[in-house]
Amino acid sequence: MPTTSDRLTLRDLPIPAKLVVTSFLISVGLGYLWAMAQIHFKHASPGEPMPTLADLVGRFSGVPWPSEPKPEPENKDAKEEEKPLVLSRAGVKVKTIIDTRCLRCHKPGGDREETLLTNHSQVAKQLEVKAAHPKGRLVTVLTGLRGKLTSKTMVGVFFEFSEDWEELNNEQRKLEEPKREAERLVLLAWIEAGATKETFEANAFPLPQGFDRTHLANRLLVELDPAAIRMGRGGPQPVPPGEKTPRERWGDAKGRQINVEHLTQSTHAHLLTFSMLWALTGIVFAFTNHSYFLRCLISPLVLIAQVLDISCWWLARLEGVGPYFALAVLGTGGVVGLGVGAQITLSLWSMYGKKGRCVLLLLALVGVGLFGLTYQKVIKPQLEEEKKLVAPIAN
Ligand code: HEC
Description:
Elements: H1 15-43, H2 53-61, H3 78-82, E1 90-92, H4 94-102, H5 120-125, H6 137-142, H7 170-192, H8 197-201, E2 205-206, E3 221-223, H9 226-230, H10 246-256, H11 260-286, H12 292-298, H13 301-315, H14 322-351, H15 354-394
Antiparallel strand pairs: 1-2, 1-3
Helix pairs in contact: 1-14, 2-10, 2-14, 11-13, 11-14, 13-14
């Protein structure tokens, strides 16, 4: 095994070469910090610095975390739904209908976050009467043609553009049709009756006389007659505000999952370009004067961890065990980060003598100071800003 004296190490490089390698390592380090900022903006829930476990599992596996059994598709409850509820005064959960059919896109971070529908005042804005919308915009979009979604019609969101439509077969869709149509008609009836804040917030709209509720799913109905409630005939109780039903949690997670095209693109970018980068930082580390063992361990570590990391991205899509691979991304990603950090700092350290190391320490101190300042002035306010943005959904 060659010793330090008869093999080339970073220490032996001429100063210009050392300066190039040093600047390279520092800029890779900075680049890595920016990659963290990118991960924050792309993958973390608003207000969180980094993705939570639930973000991670949602993103790669498309299922909620902590794991929970998948709710049966709506019409599988067919037996329960067949028995009409006996209600002395029927109320409908209008807010639940808007939440399940509209918020997928009309919430912060959704496809149409320009128009939020998360609370009553936002919904009421769509009720304003204008020349183009004599009954308000909400009525316009709820009475348009069924088909592609445009600014004039959202009728399709009850059918083809609803969350679980793809999972239903033709027969199930036929059974679902009248139920979805009933939801649309209830919203129109609610608007007709004034679309009040009280009924929205109580999530209980007293069905008008003569409204045919045959097709309304039992889970959308509540008993409004206090006497009947006392007798224990409440029907399904409303979900507490801010809390999501299992179906919503599964839908949210599915909506957050990265699609195959994106993942393919990310995979090839990481494997080709990042491999070049980690090969260079690894080679630099291979020429340090750290022990033979350490060099054999750390030089290829980042490249190997990256391959494992990317394998986990794909394995996370497996049904059942998938979420565990999504969680493993935390470990493999961590090893990549620590590995790069070790390669950079240990290489820099071993490249210089006493004087050089003093300069490095000084640079590091300045770096930490600047980061602290950035954290106080930019990162913290940004996170607080994001927290405020998500607050309205919670209540
Ligand atoms: C799949 C995503 C999606 C869902 C679900 C959805 N919308 Fe939309 N909505 C959009 C998009 C996109 C636009 C803008 C269409 C355009 O301008 O062409 C829009 C536009 C609107 C508009 C017109 C104002 C605006 O922002 O342009 C209203 C009102 C509206 N939607 C209400 C609803 C209601 C009510 C529901 C639930 C019953 C709903 N939307 C469900 C995507 C959606």
